[in-house]
């Protein structure tokens, strides 16, 4: 299972065996079953989560009890609740949508890692910036794009998720009702 | 003008005079007039922007020609287009809404800074994470909150912006029409 973590880092930076031994000390491997929760709203979260296999969803529940999905995380993605930064309890739930292999790492691991393997600093910063750019795009799209445009965009970006994630969750991610999503899908299948 | 930059960093980390001299080598001060553009879509952007005084807006224009405001940046905020990461041309426009004093700094300055002043690494990472958390919240709110909730939230978070930024731009930021915003504001003033 650790080899998947190594492969992930080696996409950007060559990792020596010695460095890999150091990485291993910072990551705790864990298997979670479908339906299991890694985090619930209100808990204190101190880990970032790396997904080696499987699929998680990170979501919030608003005051009226409605779920809003922030993120699906499959192989080689990261997730986590960001509240730890201000020492506040988590605002998110993280749930396994499939049996998954994950790694937990404490917040300060990143600093230890980038001190030990300087090449990773640029890599990490680039990842955060890319993630910020993706969020910006999602903001613009949720403010302006039609439900259909948002679904098409989702298909283009995450083709594999369509097969793996229940329709009602994709609807929640897109901020549309399951009925609207079903209508859009029907319309698409007629076009083919 | 550089003192404002120092004060910003010193909110989190004590800076020695020697360190400050190093910081100065990485930041280029610039004054921009109201209406002036710092960046236009399609240009190659290689700077992050720190706002020492004034107000900027960062926005995109969609295929149908509609503006979407990603961010207003006043004193002590940062902005910039994130496309440089993938060496792609900028997707954003950055325009001064007031006469402003800004600093430009190259992308790799952050790494130089955090190597020279290790305390800043944690500070910088925390800032990126906070920004990511804020973006998450904006995604959830744009997917689920009503126009009125979004306006109230904006008022709470950025009370000073209401005075400084044209109504139509606040509407654009919130993803609502200027007419809806004007109706919400009227309703609020009746309540008082």
Structure in words:
Two copies of one chain form a homodimer. In chain A, the strands form two sheets. Chain A has a four-stranded antiparallel sheet with strand order 1-8-3-6. The first copy, chain A, has a four-stranded antiparallel sheet with strand order 2-7-4-5. Chain A has 192 residues and is of the alpha+beta class. The mean pLDDT of chain A is 88. Chain A is built from eight helices and eight strands; from the N terminus they run ααββββββββαααααα. Chain A has helices at residues 2-10, 17-26, 109-116, 119-144, 147-157, 161-164, 167-174, 178-191, and strands at residues 27-32, 37-39, 47-53, 56-61, 67-73, 78-79, 93-96, 100-106. Helix content of chain A is 47%, strand content 22%. In chain A, a hairpin with a 5-residue loop joins strand 4 and strand 5. Chains A and B meet through helix 3 and helix 4 of A and helix 3 and helix 4 of B.
